[in-house]
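Q: Got a minute? One more chain.
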Amino acid sequence: MPGTRKLGRDTAHRTAMLRAMVTFLFENGKIETTVTRAKEVSSLAEKFITIAKEENLHNKRLVLSFITKEDVAQKLFKEIAPKYADKNGGYTRITKLGPRRGDAAEMAIIELI
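A: Always. Here it is, folded:
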């Protein structure tokens, strides 16, 4: 079934979790999570970096409607997006770490390249 992964959550919970994770990724540069969550976060993060490459009012409002912290949105426009100005996609890297000790969920690190 194509489309987004449900990640075992209802729509509002899933959206809130992904917003928080994308914000945290832009704030810190990398996060450790499960592989499936990392893939979803990667997809969203790449979309927002592409949007932030062109700084205009519409794009700022699109980013601010999703990113939960205003200073992180500013960082996206001022520092992160200009770094990838000459690149078309491939802004994130997912590195698999192996199973988590408690429940054997496959873990990964997602980072901005």
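A: The domain at 11-112 is CATH 3.90.1030.10 (50s Ribosomal Protein L17; Chain: A,).
Q: Perfect, thanks.
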